[in-house]
User: Which sequence fits this backbone?
């Protein structure tokens, strides 16, 4: 079934074609009418996809079709943001009103690189904006990384958030010690979820994950950084939240690290405010009298600094992780210790931690869906200038795909607006090719998808899935119980209306 704006578009095309029969050239219809719509395809429906769309719609001639690999929208807002951070997910309200707009269509369950190729979109649209995020995790590239129960934070987060590809993650929480490698906010999310925050069962966490976490036997969680407290990547609010949750059982190692570098509160004065506040919190943690696991029942979290993963050791018969070997690092000077950009050097000292779970949380990276897209593999992003893909006249990118996997949703909004602005200026300056021609947009794409028998999920279908998820959740006292199986989502979607597209 076609959405209103698509039907409207076809009507437009027909009337525009009859109005311009005399201007046929090179097999295409040239249109004299400058009020012709500008058709834009946006790939990916995370924050970047929606914020880019929102800004593009400021030009009344622009129509946007959003293509999303999954049957459901919102990217990492649904599948990344932690279940106990419900307030962050409120952004979906504004995304929903954008999607309901007259000049927007949503086509879910359509993957670029699988169901469609970039050339299909470039042919059908005046411009294409890639917003498909960073869907791979970075590797440590050390021995033993493939051992059992060594998993990526991306998969762990996907598992508890119900990402279809991670729903069957083979994770064992029956050990007493877990090591999380990396000291960013994703690492803190993973640690916090393992610490079982209050009311987790009432959130939109998948019930299977919640049950397994509830039964977890983990009593100590190491959060491991190769640099020092001043170089940690997590932010103050998230650290404070974890310390609060972990009451008296959060501590840092080495405990004397600040003293060893002659750092006291006064020494922090030269730091930028956000960095100073974060460091003060860690300094506090190093001096406060902490309880021990023997004194308190619970789970202990240990921020371990200056420790670089060297090797993961698996049990010879089970293949399951048993130890992680860490090489101690050191700063060349006390000045480096308080320089947030400093990189320490390796020492000869190796420390071993016995553990039954390793979570690698060292960042995400983007994939190259087409070999012609210029990638900066170091950054994990597409090479672009203000969102315009280098070497292309009508291909753009925004969000994490444009900046690398860094920053919060507000930062993604900024990057998306920069990209949209670049495209709007190209339209304004008539720098975009083929602006004088009618582009078939989703009609041409639908023919391709129909031939490939792709079941497309439209936004109304998603709204029904959304409603059912809420109802099922409500029945068991949760905000939502997510469908975690693509076929199940498609069944719910196809029951609602005729899926002919
Ligand atoms: P994404 O959100 O990843 O969206 C990309 C979309 O593209 C997805 O829907 C994906 O399915 C789709 N896609 C992928 N491949 C294809 C393809 N081939 N074809 C079609 N579609 C495709 N920020 C905060 O402000 N607060 C938080 O609490 C917070 N928590 C986070 C927790 C985690 C674990 C992570 C990883 C990030 C978190 N962030 C948080 C950051 C925030 O999620 C990002 O800033 C934001 O999601 C980036 O948006 P994006 O649209 O670029 O990418
Ligand atoms: P991140 O902030 O870049 O942190 C990655 C961590 O991994 C850093 O501590 C980094 O240390 C470490 N690391 C990288 N390579 C390593 C290696 N080879 N060996 C050991 N350590 C290594 O990435 P992230 O945690 O995945 O978060 C991504 C973005 O999402 C961030 O901007 C984050 O703020 C955002 N986010 C926000 C929230 C929130 O607002 N609540 C929640 C989750 C995520 P070095 O510094 O030494 O490289």
Assistant:
């Amino acid at each position: 079934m076609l959405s209103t704006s698509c039907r409207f578009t076809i009507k437009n095309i027909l009337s525009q074609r009859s109005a311009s029969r005399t201007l046929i050239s090179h097999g295409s219809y040239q249109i004299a009418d400058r009020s012709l719509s500008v058709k834009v395809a946006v790939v990916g429906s995370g924050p970047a996809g929606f914020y880019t769309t929102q800004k593009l719609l400021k030009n009344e001639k622009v129509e946007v079709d959003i293509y999303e690999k999954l049957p459901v929208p919102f990217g990492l807002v649904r599948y990344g943001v932690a279940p106990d951070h419900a307030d962050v997910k409120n952004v979906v309200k504004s995304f929903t009103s954008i999607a309901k707009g007259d000049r927007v269509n949503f086509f879910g369950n359509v993957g670029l690189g699988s169901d469609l190729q970039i050339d299909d979109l470039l042919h059908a649209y005046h411009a294409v904006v890639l917003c498909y995020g960073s869907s791979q995790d970075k590797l440590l590239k050390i021995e033993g990384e493939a051992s059992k129960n060594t998993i990526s934070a991306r998969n762990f987060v996907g598992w508890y958030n119900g990402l279809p590809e991670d729903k069957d993650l083979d994770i064992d929480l029956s050990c007493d010690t877990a090591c999380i490698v990396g000291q960013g906010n994703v690492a803190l999310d993973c640690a916090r979820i393992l610490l079982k925050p209050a009311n987790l069962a009432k959130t939109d966490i998948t019930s299977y994950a919640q049950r397994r976490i509830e039964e977890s036997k983990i009593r100590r969680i190491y959060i491991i950084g190769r640099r020092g407290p001043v170089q940690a990547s997590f932010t103050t609010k998230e650290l404070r939240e974890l310390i609060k949750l972990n009451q008296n059982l959060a501590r840092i190692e080495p405990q004397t690290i600040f003293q060893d570098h002659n750092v006291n509160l006064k020494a922090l004065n030269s730091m930028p405010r956000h960095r100073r506040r974060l460091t003060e919190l860690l300094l506090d943690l190093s001096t406060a009298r902490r309880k021990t696991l023997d004194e308190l029942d619970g789970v202990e979290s240990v921020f371990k600094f200056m420790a670089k993963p060297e090797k993961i050791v698996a049990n010879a018969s089970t293949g399951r992780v048993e130890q992680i070997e860490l090489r101690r690092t050191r700063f060349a000077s006390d000045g480096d210790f308080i320089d947030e950009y400093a990189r320490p050097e390796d020492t000869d000292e190796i420390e071993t931690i016995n553990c039954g779970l390793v979570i690698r949380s060292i960042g995400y990276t983007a994939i190259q869906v087409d070999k012609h897209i210029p990638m900066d593999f170091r950054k994990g992003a597409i090479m672009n200038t203000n969102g315009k893909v280098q070497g292309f006249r009508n291909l753009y990118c925004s969000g994490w795909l444009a900046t690398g996997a860094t920053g919060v949703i507000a930062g993604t909004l900024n990057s998306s607006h920069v990209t949209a602005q670049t495209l709007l200026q190209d339209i304004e300056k008539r720098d975009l090719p083929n602006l004088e021609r009618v582009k078939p947009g989703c009609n041409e794409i639908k023919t391709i998808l129909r031939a490939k028998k792709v079941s497309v999920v439209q936004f109304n279908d998603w709204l029904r899935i959304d409603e059912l998820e809420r109802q099922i959740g409500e029945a068991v006292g949760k905000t939502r119980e997510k469908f975690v199986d693509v076929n199940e989502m498609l069944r719910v979607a196809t029951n609602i209306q005729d899926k002919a597209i």
